[in-house]
Amino acid sequence: MRFFSDNAAAVHPRVLAALGEANTLDTAYDGDRWSKALDGQLGALFETAVRVLWVPTGTAANCLALGALCPPWGGVICHRDAHIQNDEAGAPEFYTHGAKLMPGEGAGAKLTPDAIAAVADAVVNDIHRVQPHAVSITNATEYGLVYRPDEVAAIGELCRARGLGLHMDGARFANAVAFTGASPAELTWRAGVDALSFGFVKNGGMSAEALVFFRPELAAETLRRRKRAGLLLSKGRYLAAQILAMVKDDLWLGCGRAANARAATLAQAGASRLIHSVEANEVFLHATTEEAAALRAQGFDFYDWAPGEIRLVTAWDSDEEAVARLARAIGAL
Amino acid sequence: MRFFSDNAAAVHPRVLAALGEANTLDTAYDGDRWSKALDGQLGALFETAVRVLWVPTGTAANCLALGALCPPWGGVICHRDAHIQNDEAGAPEFYTHGAKLMPGEGAGAKLTPDAIAAVADAVVNDIHRVQPHAVSITNATEYGLVYRPDEVAAIGELCRARGLGLHMDGARFANAVAFTGASPAELTWRAGVDALSFGFVKNGGMSAEALVFFRPELAAETLRRRKRAGLLLSKGRYLAAQILAMVKDDLWLGCGRAANARAATLAQAGASRLIHSVEANEVFLHATTEEAAALRAQGFDFYDWAPGEIRLVTAWDSDEEAVARLARAIGAL
Amino acid sequence: MRFFSDNAAAVHPRVLAALGEANTLDTAYDGDRWSKALDGQLGALFETAVRVLWVPTGTAANCLALGALCPPWGGVICHRDAHIQNDEAGAPEFYTHGAKLMPGEGAGAKLTPDAIAAVADAVVNDIHRVQPHAVSITNATEYGLVYRPDEVAAIGELCRARGLGLHMDGARFANAVAFTGASPAELTWRAGVDALSFGFVKNGGMSAEALVFFRPELAAETLRRRKRAGLLLSKGRYLAAQILAMVKDDLWLGCGRAANARAATLAQAGASRLIHSVEANEVFLHATTEEAAALRAQGFDFYDWAPGEIRLVTAWDSDEEAVARLARAIGAL
Amino acid sequence: MRFFSDNAAAVHPRVLAALGEANTLDTAYDGDRWSKALDGQLGALFETAVRVLWVPTGTAANCLALGALCPPWGGVICHRDAHIQNDEAGAPEFYTHGAKLMPGEGAGAKLTPDAIAAVADAVVNDIHRVQPHAVSITNATEYGLVYRPDEVAAIGELCRARGLGLHMDGARFANAVAFTGASPAELTWRAGVDALSFGFVKNGGMSAEALVFFRPELAAETLRRRKRAGLLLSKGRYLAAQILAMVKDDLWLGCGRAANARAATLAQAGASRLIHSVEANEVFLHATTEEAAALRAQGFDFYDWAPGEIRLVTAWDSDEEAVARLARAIGAL
Prior knowledge:
Four copies of one chain form a homotetramer.
Chain A lengths: L12 H9 L11 H14 L4 E5 L2 H12 L4 E6 L3 H4 L4 H6 L3 E5 L8 H9 L9 E8 L10 H14 L2 E6 L2 H8 L3 H4 L7 E4 L10 E5 L5 H10 L8 H11 L3 H19 L12 E5 L2 H9 L5 E4 L2 E5 L6 H12 L2
Parallel strand pairs in A: 2-3, 2-4, 4-5, 5-6
Antiparallel strand pairs in A: 1-7, 6-7, 8-10, 9-10
Helix pairs in contact in A: 1-11, 2-11, 3-10, 8-12, 12-14
């Protein structure tokens, strides 16, 4: 019974079926009809004109976005616990040719306008310092917290005022939308987001994420960068088909809701142990070494986050019976 | 009836089935049992210890290999018509942090030891010139010619003598093995190849190529580079499963043979028009604009290579009836 | 008696004196009064508004210019014998983050619009090919030939028509101006040049070259790149002072004329042996191994360019008596 | 009366004289006899075999050293107030092709083994995190504190134990040696330092710093990197001559002592206002806006470091009378 991470979950049957349906000859790269449908389908979802590039990983989506928003000699303000800072092995620096990540503070890996301003204001505006060019936030955050539309909008306003681009790492965007009830548009471009890494792999996809540009002019260069990074798969239709399957009938949102609901069940069971509010599909609990061992002895698999802390992650396919058993086990600790 | 390129062919049913079989929860990235089986399975195929990394594109495989064999201040000797020189949008320069491709000459995109030595000898060995560090050859070449084991070995010997690494771009390695009848070992490490981009996507795969290191010590850094390039898919098992399916019962070789046989049929029909020998799955023919139009009018799709030249490419799934009709149409020109 | 290269000549006494005059406390970096005078002084020389950055080497000037004119995923068309292609050890690739040099052909290292168009036209305009973004020409060329104003203008016109930036490597710009009698303006911005590496080190300077932007908007980013490359000397006044001393009373032009005149003397003596016209300060002669040895036996030092070819380079400070002796020796071969 | 920074001080007359003495024709780049003397002269000073490269800036020295000690996918632990982190505009990232600086804590910009271990220990050793490869310390620090030999040795021991390279930014190395009375060897390689940026520009030089490798095998690649960065001046003898003049008769040490002594005078006068111990040539004082204005009204120029804090920097050539007047003015506040 695995609560280790959502990134190893199974692929949704409808996504798998879409691969089979795409298994006919078509044009290579992104000239096929699936790839060509992305702008329209995601434009409808986001209620605005967008340019969409499929990529095989969230890291690729994030780092292509950063490359579009920040020159090699610039900086990107992000949370010190951000995935781009800690879990991408220097990919942001690789893709931007050496831009500098500028870590900010905030509970639960969440940035605020004040936290961002604090980072930016500490940078003397002279030729000797790397100047910030963009902000990157993660929604839902690495600790399972969710930015509400007005929180994103406040950051977006600061970015516009200071001439900073705004990127959203949406590896768990579905969970954030599910939690807030906001529309995808409200959580992104209406709040000032320029580029979104729209994640599917943690949410039922296999190998396709969507990089969504709300400023379509950013796409042209990024198409070249994607190719130059070895990311332009010749059979792109199999990536596009995954995304289209996830978008169709809001499968992505249903999967996000399912994961959130299972996390809520665990959060309720461990209410007295919660380290962070549970707003998405991650549950961080205080648990002693013995307690963690006791849970493992019952067959539950999860991540030891820090001494005395464990992380439980649910996914679209977390078995409801397993969730219920884990909830009971937590309650019984 | 499409003879445009092998890179848009359908996915082999056994590969597609393998995706379904891999659709269970397992460890993320390359910790799963499919990924872990690659070294062993490909080691058996190549009759030596290898380290294998899955990647989603041939460009990624090539450029990670070049990065392992050449520092940023070095050069890579390749044919002037090589894919890495002309068709990867600067990915070699991106992955190597600015190494220089040093193009050499040779009929049919084939390099010889003499051609390589000519490039290397033209470089004064001083601090002002970029010095060559590696050689990259493509087998089968971009024009459908095949290096025999002794031809590779002659190049390998030159590389060893001069301290150059040797990479083989095997996007069509299956076609080369099928043509020569040589073993995979004879065409690679026994002939001095250090790293092979073993292609599957043009040959029945969907989104997985294998980067095979015959010098296993090159793998450690490359694992970090793969991650840093945004290429470490979290559900790597779906890539590994494709490769394992292709390797099982020599499916890859059967597909390569099938494509070659279809090309041979076309070559025979167009024998008087051949620009290059047909040794793999590509057929380059002299054809006037009117002749090309006449073929298109009969429903055949292909690439106008240059004025008066057309390229026909077969694949594992080229319809035999369509091939026969095209052969007749060529003969009737 | 050294005719090996102009790059090791002595520093002109007026330049050395300028260093002493600058040896008072002032503001660091480029905030001092010498540095601040550059835009005005060179603007007067070029009869237009310019932005000028001092740098310590011609390679730095060239590569900062290329970085300003070409993105990492672009290409720069240059002659296959260009300094940036052969003698800068990959600095163009380093500074541009991996842009591709695209070598063209032409006698005496000179490009023509046709030669440039031939390179550009060979690049299919698709996502798989690196696209040209700029052209770089060297005046005087690496073989001592000089582009006339109308020749530069023809290239400038082609660049404008195709949206390509135009850089001039003017390591020997003084020699080119001296030869043509054209004004600096006519040879550069009036002919479409966007950025000039204005060389002084080969012409009496010590350690300062001027990167001159005729499109002033290119300077802002380049100021950051210069710092980021470790090229912003804290005591920049000693570089600016060198440039100002060279510009004052057209010292640069006088030095260029002197070097050209000495080369003309040698060219006259070796008229029957000339490989290239002698238009600047370089003389390439046919000479057998025995003839070269005979010259060396008389105390002359020079470069063996290729089998049967020698290169003689004069400088502002070439001893006239030594030049006369060498001329006699050549005539006596 | 300027106490703004040591980086704009005048050039020592003996250095200027050395430029005149070097003003004869010699071989270009680093083939001249001055450049060739560096290894020997600095080897004698450091009492061990060294490889020495001249470069025009401290940033270049630092970043070439980091490039030699850390791959693009690695990290460099430094103090969060380090020059490489804050004042080099991303040059470390440029030269290393995107390595990550990992800032640590410590009073007065000084790192301890514990502080370094804290940074390193926070990095999970997996494929997703950038791993530290080197440590960089500044001696004297950016706040004018000095690492003693045993303090460096403790860091050196930690580095050896963990396989980390150790770089010392010695922009003010003379001040550190002058303060400690230790030998250059004791403060560097005997304490585990692999590479030293030996600064002269703040201490009487004009445009030459020495990058000193105590692991000579690091030099070969760095020679190529120096050229590739546009840092290989063709008239290198004028840089080498500066360094030789500074080393001769320990001019560098005398200049460092002179600067330290003047700072000590100021420190004594402002003893009750000191923010940091004054061990080198920088004096950080608490001073209100009004007090700072009062000093400026008397003709003293300095840097407002932070609200309520000012920085006074002395140099080898700080006028003693001006120092005395400033000391009195501080005492009278």
